[in-house]
Amino acid sequence: MANGHEGGCLCGAVRYETGSDPLRVSVCHCTWCQRRTGSAFAVEALFEKSQIVIVGTTSKFRSNSDESGRWIDLEFCPKCGTNIGFTFERLPSHRMIDSGTFDDPSWINPDRFDFRYVYLRSAQCWSEVPPGAKAFEAFFPT
Ligand SMILES: [Zn+2]
Ligand SMILES: [Zn+2]
After folding, report:
1. Which of 69, 119, 125, 135 is the most buried (most CB within 10 A)?
2. What is the distance in A from the centroid of ligand 2 to the CA of 81?
């Protein structure tokens, strides 16, 4: 596929393929992402749902945003627990893919795509944002 990319979970039970490049990439420092990834921030690539084919069955966990109360369905491999990404009520026609799950995540970089650093108000003090990056205290205005 032109501009297609493949990825999957650690154990291989869940695989996916995209039919396009991401629309944008969010580097999210919110506390929800810190907990769901067990890390300091998440790197989330946004796609239209129609551009993603998932092979294998994911498990879902529904959270509600503390701020808006809207749902976010986290998807993960039921066998190895890898976070594949999530869908969310604010943009139900789209899907976020956790960028570290691509077979080669190196093509996702700020030189190629629209990177936005969000929820910096809850960033860890050592998390640095590159100079000149689009940075937001919370979500960016839509
Ligand atoms: Zn797995
Ligand atoms: Zn987040």
Report:
1. 119
2. 18
